Every structure is written in structure tokens, then in C-alpha cells.
Amino acid sequence: MTSILVIDDDKSLRDLLAGILREQGHEVQTAEEGNSALALMAEATFDLVISDIIMPGKEGIETIREIRSLHPEVRIIAMSTGGSLGNAQILEYARLIGAHEVIRKPVELPALIEMIARMFP
């Protein structure tokens, strides 16, 4: 069973992803922004973090950098609509700083499930 942390400020998306991933047999916890995610990571071990990029509080790029520094073994999927920087550029930047995979929002659930299955065969 894969332990996953979903970080997104959109509660409805966070809850949807958590529910779908639990149905797939994963253990899932959620956080609404980077600071709360890092606090959870200080208490528990995760195999995978799925993080939005544009969030209030500690945003995704900063959060990914910190996760990569503190927990280099954790796999990371970055997701974003892109905001003012544009989707492709911000996701490519997330990959450059340590995200293993990237996915655009709105998230296509079958694509996310397939991505996770490839990461954890």
C-alpha cells in the first residue's frame, strides 16, 4: 500500500483525489498548503506527494524544494493550472526542482491513477 499526501488549497479537489486514491487501495492524508504538509511529513512517512503549485501560504514550488531537501526519497507529482506563469512553464520548473511527474489541472483521474501505477509497480 502506497502512502500518499495530497496538497491542494481546493478542498473539493483535495477530497475527491483522496477518495479516489483510497478506493485504489492507497493510504491518503491531505493538507491545504505547504506548511501544513511539511508538518504532517515531520510526523509521518509518505511514499508520494501530490502537490498543487499555486496555493496561499507556502506555495508548491517552495514546498517541493523543501520536501526534496528534507525527504529526498519521496516521489513527487506536481499539478497546476499554471496561473499567470502559464501551465507548461510552471510545471516544467517544478520538474526541474525535483518533481518526478507533472499533471495539468483539471486533473484527468485515469491519467493520475496510471501515473501512480507506473511510479509504484
How many β-strand runs?
A: 5
Secondary structure class reads alpha/beta
Taking the alpha carbons of the first and last residues, their distance comes to 11 Å
Main sheet makeup: 5 strands, parallel
Q: Which H/E pattern describes the elements?
A: EHEHEHEHEH
Residue runs with pLDDT of under 50 for 5 or more positions: none
Q: How helix-rich are the residues, as a percent range?
A: 40-55%
Count of alpha/pi helices: 5
The fraction of residues in strands falls at 15-25%
**What do the pLDDT scores average to?**
94
Radius of gyration: 13 Å
Could you describe the 3D structure shown?
This protein has 121 residues and is an alpha/beta fold. 46% of the residues lie in helices and 21% in strands. The protein contains 5 helices and 5 strands; from the N terminus they run βαβαβαβαβα. A 5-stranded parallel beta sheet has the order 2-1-3-4-5, sandwiched between helices. The longest helix is centred in the first third of the chain and has 13 residues. The chain is globular. The protein starts with a strand and ends with a helix. The model has no long low-confidence stretch (mean pLDDT 94).
What's the arrangement of secondary structure elements?
Blueprint lengths: L2 E5 L3 H13 L3 E5 L2 H10 L4 E5 L7 H11 L4 E6 L6 H11 L3 E4 L4 H11 L2
How would you describe this structure in keywords?
alpha/beta, five-stranded parallel sheet, 5 helices, 21% strand
In short:
The protein has 5 helices and 5 strands.
